[in-house]
Write a structure and sequence with these properties.
Helix 2 runs antiparallel to helix 3. The chain has 7 helices and no strands. The chain starts with 6 loop residues before the first helix and ends in a 20-residue tail after the last helix. About 60% of the residues lie in helices and about 0% in strands. With about 140 residues, it is mainly alpha-helical. The protein folds into 2 domains: about 60 residues; about 45 residues.
């Protein structure tokens, strides 16, 4: 269907596309604009290298709900808010060199099992990051450096 966007909507989508950092949202915006210009779903799918069904879904979801962003937000936390706050405090006060040890602590303390990727996601979502330490040879001359 051609011209389902008014000029203001189209300009708003173009401006958002310029600022958008999420590639998937950018593809949604392009699919909507190109469909509005009269492109077929097949041509849009070929141009954006996505499935024709995906293009159709993007356009329909925009027409029905003005949806631009995917709604996949991952699963909910296995820990309660109180447990998460306790764990954050514990991690800040302790020194962990490996996320495996944090997983063991959580399982012992709360009876909750996390996968390797699950705990890394939890740590990232709660403001933790990991920086691999620099290796210093055991017999390095610190004064020579």
């Amino acid at each position: 269907m051609k011209n389902f966007l008014n000029i203001e909507q189209k300009n708003e989508l173009l401006n958002q596309h310029k600022k958008e950092k999420n590639k998937k949202v950018g593809d949604r915006i392009k699919a909507i604009i190109l469909s509005n210009e009269g492109w077929t779903y097949r041509l849009i799918s070929e141009a954006l290298l996505i499935e024709e069904e995906t293009v159709s879904r993007h356009v329909q979801e925009y027409k029905e709900k003005e949806k631009l962003k995917g709604e996949a937000g991952g699963s909910k936390s296995n820990l309660t808010a109180e447990q998460s706050n306790e764990l954050i405090k514990h991690i800040e006060e302790s020194l962990y060199l490996d996320s495996k040890n944090i997983r063991c602590y959580i399982e012992q303390k709360y009876g909750v099992k996390y996968s390797s990727s699950g705990i890394l996601s939890w740590l990232h979502n709660n403001g933790f990051s990991y920086k691999k330490p620099d290796r210093i040879p055991a017999k390095a001359d610190r004064e020579a450096g």
